[in-house]
Amino acid sequence: MWKNSVQIGQELADELSDAQLDRAASLFAAHMILRGSVLTEGFEPESIAPYIALSSYGRDVMAPLADITSADEERDALLCALYSFYHRDFLLNVEGCDTSGLIEALSQEIRRGNLLLPARFGRELYDKFNDRFVGRAKGRASHLDHEDSVDLFFGSPQGNYQIGTYVLGPLGIHKVPHRRLIAPDRRVPLWHCSDTGCNALHRVELGSFPHSFTQLASLLEATLSDSVGPASEWFYPFLRLSAEPGSTHEGRKYFDVIALLADGLGDDEVKQVLRDALSSSDRAVLVETLAQTKSSDNWKGMGPDIISDRVDRNEAIQLIMILNDARVVELIDRSIASDQLRIPVGETRASKAGLLRLSTVDPRSTMSNLGVRSDRKQPVAYMAATIWKAYAETGSLSDLEWRCRKGAGPASPGSPIDFMRAHEPDSVIKELVLPSREITHWLAEQLNLQIAAFDDEETIVSRFLWKLGFNLPRFDDRFARFHRQSAAFREELLKATARLNDDDRDRLRSKGVNVFVSLEAILEDLITYNTWLFFSDHFTQTRFEYERKSALHMVTKVLGSQLSSGGATSFWSTSGHNTLGPLLVYLRALVKELNKRVLADRTETLRPTEELPHFDDKDRFAFRHVELWADTSAIDMKSYVDELNGITARLEKASLAEVRNGLDHFREESRFPKVETMTNCELFVSDAVRLAEERRLLPVPVWLRSRSNDNVGRIKYELEDHAGRRSILYGPAAILGLRPLEFGCPFLIPTSNLLGHTNADLVFRIVEESSYSALWSNYPRRPSANVPPAEVDTSGANDPIAVPA
């Protein structure tokens, strides 16, 4: 009789004891390992078969296919039952199978390389596939045969997975107390198609060696489907057995933290997390795991640094997986808080491949300089519910009512949300959470947040809000620092007299040199950003992401690696830290080049037809050229360049070289800059920087603060920069190809509507230099442009699976 997942789940709960459920879950884990691994020719079924026993149903359905008399046929029947696992009923005898022996035999096959676990995370297999196989099937491969699969895998480490309580990887299989669902899968995300308008990550199924038991399994499944119909829904109940239970409304918190760790941390960062674990109370279990697998080494006598250096990346990840999710989050958070993991202030890290979700409410995990969190679609509701629960479970509801309404008596569940209507989220933390030590620690424990003794209030508030799911704007202080330094220099100039003594010159030199150091960085950004902005192919090359490292190289591509001016030669450093003289030369050259391009012929930069996206529309697709200046409106570009001309003119009037050299190099009293000259310099420089900053001629990050739309579809976006300056954009756009605005990340938005269309402001996401951006540089990779687009695989593991209750 066919059974649905609800019936099977109830049957498992009613008929099996806890010990039997554990054995059944172990058999399911063995099934998933066998089914999800690439079986090589060297795989030995004989090492697995002795630990398997058929159920009476399994023997009944096998009987018509083969007369199980010979040793080989018996072996194939047993392996076939494990490989198929179920049809209308369970094919295996739960009590008769030796689960410990079975798992150990599979572990040995993994360590010998007879079972290959494809590395789903990171990009090693992705890059190898694009290097070796992208030309095959016109880059649209959905399957690799066994020989190609082994070729792809050659030289790569085993991947990392966990099914139930079994952690899999290069160190074999190890049993742990906690459960996870990172199921082995031969369908690996390996390529993006050539269509410049498609961002789907396509999967390739890696082929196993055709062992006789897999062929028998295919025959069994086809025969049973034809004779009795589809299989019962055994898969979902066993998936639930393999995962930690989650809340009905909040899902499985941090269920994908291992995917985040594997995709979000570079090699050195993964090793740093492992070192921290080895320096803690976790050392014993981690060293014991290594000793079981690599017994020839004296791991117990090695320090954390030596151990982390002697294991490779995937081995380090598997060791970290020995720990539960909460502990992994704690280790990452501690490394971030101590600056051992340096995440740029505006960067948010996430897994590229993702993990299978058992419910649509399972929240994805992300990482920033504030720690690891589970994302929340409605952080306000989550905050209100969590605060209410904190007060309820600590017996403090009367305190909640007092803090929310200054009233007596118990609070209602609506009290926190009422309070939040009139208060910003940071005020909610300051007034409802931090006043109570008990509430603060209860909430911190729920959110896996560690509060250090030296943390100030603003840091604690920011981390609470991040963990609760709020997308907080995060800025560095480079512009504010320049303005502070400029103001300090101005203050010293105002105190100075016409005749300076040595102490006066020392004070002015101290303040003035700081201004010029910051100014050099700002001028470098001014040149780099505007060169990148106008001369890049943003649709296919930058993908509307500003990466300063790439932009520095764009300057040499457009203006050259060296320029001659006034009989001297200036050189551009693509590693940054250019000095004032070359910066002024390159700024003049950039302004000159942009002025020429306003009315220049644009036909030479037309985009090749094969690079146009599938949604191309000659009237609506905005990026028909391979350099942005050629797609701009001449009037709007002229307005932008005029503002840049004004900035340059102010800097030319500042006598920058004279003042800089006088402050930094000349010690003679007669050659030190005059107070009037320095005052004029500071005035023109601060004015130029202020104007460039306000008009966003510099790469000034802005964050989306609010988004609203009305009943006819008009959209209003409100953005904010580091100084609290607000900008308003509108949608929807009538043209195609623009990047959408999102909450939770910094953007660059030119102040002028360069494309000349209504609701068509350019939006660039900022990619900061880090190990994460280096890991995912040049991603996605695309095959040659004449390859037809692929159909999106809608059955991917990124899609949520709704599991019946």
Q: Per the principal axes of the C-alpha atoms, what is the gross shape?
A: globular
Low-confidence stretches: 785-789, 792-805
Which band does the percent of strand residues land in?
5-15%
Alpha plus pi helix count: 30
Q: Could you give the order of strands across the largest sheet?
A: 10-17-16-13-14-15
Rg over C-alpha atoms, rounded to the nearest angstrom:
31 Å
Q: What assembly state would you assign to the polypeptide chains in this entry?
A: single chain
Number of strands: 17
Terminal CA distance reads 21 Å
Q: Can you describe this structure?
A:
This protein is of the alpha+beta class and 805 residues long. It folds into four domains: 5-182 and 204-242, no CATH class; 379-468, no CATH class; 478-694, no CATH class; 702-775, no CATH class. 46% of the residues lie in helices and 10% in strands. The chain is built from 30 helices and 17 strands. It has a six-stranded mixed sheet. Strand 13 and strand 14 form a beta hairpin. Helix 27 (634-652) packs antiparallel against helix 29 (675-694). It starts with a helix and ends in a 30-residue tail after the last helix. The model is unreliable at 785-789 and 792-805 (pLDDT under 50).
